[in-house]
Amino acid sequence: METILRQLYQYTFDTPPDTLSRLSPAGSNRIYYRLTKDTHSCVGVIGTSLTENRAFLYIARHFA
Question: Which of 25, 57, 59, 63 is least crowded, fewest Cβ atoms below 10 Å from its Cβ?
């Protein structure tokens, strides 16, 4: 799964991340990672529940 996040980061930012660090769990089946390159940082999420993934995306779009 981490490979998918690395590929998505490279596709989005046109460069591979320098680091990928797993973050503390947050009470769901989602796994969060921090991906960094130089001074740029973002959070990647992997979820195994389709229902939770849809809810997560809905909330993320709402707050964006």
Answer: 63
